[in-house]
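Attaching the record inline, Q. Sequence:
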Amino acid sequence: MSLLVPENTPPPSPEEPPVLAPQTLSSNRGVMGAAAILAVGNITSRVIGMVREAVKANLFGASGTLAAFEAAALVPTTLFDLLIGGIVSSALVPVFSDYASKEQRQALWQAVSAVLSVVTVLLLLVVALVELFTPQVAWLVGARQFDDPDLTILSLRLMRLTTPALLFLGLSSLLTGVLLALRRFTLPAFTAAVFNGTIVLFALWWRTIDGLVWGLLTGAFLQMLLQLPALRDARLRWQFDWRHPALRRILKLYIPIVAGLVIDIFVRILSYNLAISTGDENLTYMRWATTLIQFPMGLVVTALSVAILPTLSRQALSQLHEFKQTLAGGIRLVLVLILPATTGLLALAVPIVALLFQHGAFTGADTAITARVLRIYLLGLPFAAVDQMLVFASYARKDTLRPAIVGVVSMVVYTAVALLLLEPLGLLSLMVADAVKHLVHTAMMVWLLHRQLAGLAGLGVMGALVKAGSAAAIMGAAAFGLLIWMEPWLPLSGTGRWLVEVAAAGSAAFCIYLTLTYLLRIPEIHTLPKLFRRG
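Structure, as predicted:
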């Protein structure tokens, strides 16, 4: 498998993607090594995230109390996404990467000091405003639509407690952007694991909804502290200079993103309102299904796209051929890994949900609804995975306007589909709308890529899609067939049964997919272990 191929490499045959040339292996190892570190961090954080959701399900089930917490926690996380979250990949890493050379290290610390100072003041101001106007904010996120008025009162109290987490989440992400630009991936890779782990510990200690709140606050603070050792050579100081050139460049890149994020947040708030309107507990089903979707997204797509972003940012300046090779290699890897994850989750949705969540207050009926929601969400997962790589490629080229416009269009589509299908499908209309949204967004980004870079024809992407898609479809059908075959004679029940079903069907599916990739000569699978070891 190749992420980078020099321009003088002979063109590959149509049947397979370009083969890695020896002189580019060191560069490719750097990308794959970074992806390996981020993948390990993502595995850790996603596993602990699953434990977090399992603990919440065990303690609270699909209750209105947990829905009140989810509505309250939406405030700091949504504000974070609007003010800071979109900056890291779209602006911070590309801009800070320009200062990352040793010769410009002093200029980097000055830029970081200015950004940190200005953002700290901004976040403190936003936190103060939310604390003053909590009832109005609660109305926006749907917390006042609960049928039980006590849930509304609870959500207001929890909202006031969770909002200060915005400050720590924002500062932590700024530090992450600096470290990624410096290609220091290890500590940023594990910030989410610390965050999730803290929530789990506090929830188990308190065993009340307040444990989730204090876990969220403490986890946000600890993930900021975790990254400080990687910046021990930093020369940071208070520098409230809102006219600093780096800050202006970041704002210039981020302004187009804001419009898309505003629409995205509006749609997210709308989806929360619509979910609550179909039942107080339906918001929790969305959250559990989303957690399962985020596992392969974080493990495969986020790890690889974040690792590739600094390389793409450098190549975008003057190395268009290498840029396209890197992007095509990343997309091929994403397809080869995300397609079997999608079909595997589709086939084993019920036993996976039951194994993870059906304990304590979480019932079999909750498992059935969550699995149904998950399966419809999965229809959009492959599109979302490829789309993230395409969006990051645009960010690397300092183009944030076009992805923002595409995002606005896709959100309009989501809203229209959700409202159109709400009456006949209820909660499931939101999942259908989400899948359609990802399909539309990906199609538009592919069209833009073709117009700007003449596409990725001849770089093996379509071949990887056809081969990996065929192998994944066979794998998923085999896993589902095996699950049905085991159903009548498996003597176990409860957790033991679900564990055997997931382990047996999952292992068989993995072996089938691995065999098919070798038979179909999919080189990404052949060379992936070697690249990660050398990385």
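Residues 1-28, 531-535 have pLDDT under 50 and may be disordered. Residues 64-280 form one domain.

More tomorrow.
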